[in-house]
Amino acid sequence: MSFHKVDCRGAEYTPCDASNTKSCTCADEIKSDSRYPYSPLSSPILHTLPTRHHMDKDSALDVEKTSLLVPGIVHHGLFSNDKFAITPRTILIELDQVFYDLGRRMWLQYPTLCASPVHTPREYALINFLNDFTRACCTIYANKAHPLPVCARQWVVTDSTRILSNGDAVSTLGIALADAGLSGVQWSDVLCDVQVASTATDMPEVMQRLSSGAANVFMAQEDRMSHVGIALAGDDLQIAYFDRAGRALSGVYNIHEHAVFFARTIMALTILDKSLIGKDMSIVSRDGRRFVTVGGLEYEIVETLSMTKSIRGRGTICWRCRRSDSDEDFVIKNVWADMRRTPSEGELLSEARGIAGIADLVCDEAVLRPDGRPCNTAWVLDMFAGVDGLSGRSHLELRRLVLRPYARPLAEFSSKDELLRVFRDAVAAHGDLYEREDILHCDISDNNIMIRQQAGSKFRRGLLIDLDCAIKVTDVPGKLKQGYSARRTGTIPYMAYDVLWGCVRRGPWHDLESFIYVLMVVCASYSGPSNTPRKNFDLRACPLAPWLEGDANHKCRIMMGFDDVAFRTFLDSVFDPYFDDLKDLVCDLRAVILRTTNEELDERQLPCHTDVLSVFDRHIRARQAALVISANTQLETGRSPSVDGDNDPERRKRKRGGVRPKAPDTAKPRASRTRGKAASSSSEYSDDSERTLVAHGRPAKKAKTVADAENVVGWERSPDTGRLIRCWRRRKVDHLA
Questions:
Q1: Any idea what the Cα angle at residue 190 is, between residues 187 and 195, rounded to 5°?
Q2: Cα–Cα distance between 658 and 660 in angstroms, integer?
Q3: Cα separation of 714 and 553, whole Å?
Q4: Is the pTM of this model over 0.85?
Q5: CATH topology for 280-404?
Q6: Which DSSP state fits 376?
Q7: What is the pLDDT of residues 98-110, one digit of tens each?
Q8: What ranges does the record give for the region Disordered, renumbered to this chain (predicted)?
């Protein structure tokens, strides 16, 4: 059998028949077998990968700056000889004079990657060479009865857009390895990414393109633990290894002089188990459904809730999951945790078990490889301890935490009243965590304040999640408990200004300050409930933009330097009109958290949780009182009461679209009456206020029978949204004539 070839000029040629050589890649007795590898795969076509810019300029620069050169990472680490049933050197000897000339140290059929106005012939010639070499290696494995992948893998030509470190987007042809037989290759199918250039001087740009491709691979493949990219520039070859600690580069090798290195890489990617080329085999698929086992129990992955975009870091993925023995929704957090950080998030969550408003830990365990070793990034340092710069490489371990309850994002608040309740609950949970367990959260953000459905309650409540950055605090004589963080932790737009300045001593006042910033960003970003985005608005182009870049001076000037009038004007320039009635709350929070002075000591009075909770409670009660008054005064007009401060005529117009219930003829107006609200021991705001019924009808005379009891009109809170809705009820009577 012969291999179909195309050289760099597009001219077809037919190399020598592999069955006529001493390699015996196709033995005579099995020439009639039509299965791979004894027969070639179908001709590959050009595949256009979708344009998804998961890497921005900052992320690209971060990868470049933290990249390390580890010369032996491929042949001594990733793809060492012990991983192969037949070593790469043996394969080259078997293929002498077929693919490689041992005497001349030269690949016989490797295309010249010359510069050309039309690049397509170069990429196609290269994939033909790669596919033929892969098929020859697989045939040798098959003839010697060594295991091969269940599904053959094939090199294909791709067209994609990449982001460079200067922020430019470039469209480029490349090569990808994927399972054979796919009608269309997507980023989710890419097993290896190859980028090509004509000369060795282009190698730096090729590496940048590989980094951009790696970001797409990590985002598209939730079971991806690491990724390998191949750079071919002229006759030079370099391997880029990506994991959550960043990028590690092999040395640069001449593809002809170091043929074993090249063969090792191609054989590993096409023959070895996928767990050895970066895939997480603990996530299994059955009938189109995904399953993962944690703590000996199998969970079905129902939905992906969130994913981290950057390559470096924790790489957090959150799934909504269910067990076959339960209807309860669980959240599984798949995270690369810092191995050198103690206590771990799982240990902190175990300490916090039972605190209302904090996620409950069900299980926490390390993810293991098929050989039983933990999945981590420390193996590079363990194996190449003498390499310069490796000591600063992150030591991360893949862990899975099963949590409950399942919660929804903060942006899905159903009303401003619910939004305030959620914030209040998060502050209260933060306080309990700090006071009872000596734990300081240190990463208050819009992603870590969630909305949960409370059992037995008609209203949703707040949930504080993610203790990745949390620290333990200790008593400080005469002051609030404090702790130390060795590095700047948190989410940049919401960090306290002195944390941005580099303050390592952390106290609760820093997190309380972060709560203000989260609320301000929400009020600037949305135009209503249920994740309603603000139209024609870009947060990066508004006065809050410097905060997104961590401008501590700008933040301090506004939050500390502006007087009340100037700060109110600043809020006017930032907030969406829907949130106009929350500006007083933000002003009061700023006053309590940042602008209260201890007159005796003539210094800033650091806030405590009680101070902040009292502000929320006062505004929540005021809004409830205003809502009742609005319901009473607007009944005469026949309109629903204004809820959430909706003064926008367009919103009122939409709300008037419903059909009002018809009142019974016997109903007459009466004075309003509000059921009292009880306060719990831990909070001035309690669940007793979840439902308030205000009656507006008075019977003309006493009812003589139960059947004669008259209907009255009233307003009742919706269990779904918390809004007042108009209804008719039969008045209860406890006497009969």
A1: 95
A2: 6
A3: 52
A4: no
A5: Phosphorylase Kinase; domain 1 (3.30.200)
A6: B
A7: 999 999 999 998 9
A8: 636-707
296 has which bridge partners? none
Place of tokens 């698929």: 285
Can you read off the two tokens belonging to residue 255? 């593809």
- From 3.40.50.300, 1.10.357.10, 1.10.510.10, 3.90.1150.10, which CATH number describes the 410-657 domain? 1.10.510.10
Are the beta carbons of 36 and 135 closer than 8 angstroms?
yes
Give, as one character, the DSSP assignment of residue 294.
Answer: E
What residues are paired with 484 via a beta bridge? 505
3-state secondary structure of 160: strand
Residue 32 to residue 39: CA distance in whole angstroms: 9
Distance CA 663, CA 682 (A): 42
E-strand stretches of 387-522: 396-404, 407-409, 439-440, 449-453, 460-464, 471-472, 474-476, 479-484, 505-506
- Identify whether the C-beta of residue 578 lies closer than 8 Å to the C-beta of residue 528: yes
Query: 358 - beta bridge partners?
Result: 464
Tokens of 294: 């944690």
Round to whole Å and give the CA distance between 76 and 698: 88
Q: What band does 660 get if pLDDT is binned at 50, 70 and 90?
A: very low
**Closest to 626 (Cα-Cα) out of 641, 640, 647:** 641
- pLDDT confidence of residue 510: 96
Cβ–Cβ under 8 Å, residues 464 and 426: yes
Where exactly are the structural domains of the chain? Answer: 5-277, 280-404, 410-657
For the residues 55-84, what does the mean pLDDT come to? Answer: 91
* CA separation for the pair 466, 460 (Å, rounded): 19
Q: Which of 407, 399, 226, 225 is nearest to 305 (CA)?
A: 407
